[in-house]
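[Backbone geometry]
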Amino acid sequence: MNKKVQKALEQLLPFILLGMAIAFAVGVLIMFSYVLIWGILIGTVIWTAVLLKNYFFPKKTPITTKPQGRIIEHEHDNH
């Protein structure tokens, strides 16, 4: 009787380990997708907030003016 139980456990053990590995893989996949969904939601909210901010409060580009005054050029002595 003892040998039969031992043989049954030897045959059953790979299936138990495979089942545990599959369950672990599915659990990791579920946790990853949960984090991914929250990341997408938070990213969308931040993107929308920045889009609305830029729409209602656009950046003011400074008016480029020509520099006034004189430019005095001189040659450099290379010693």
Remarks:
- The chain has a mean pLDDT of 89.
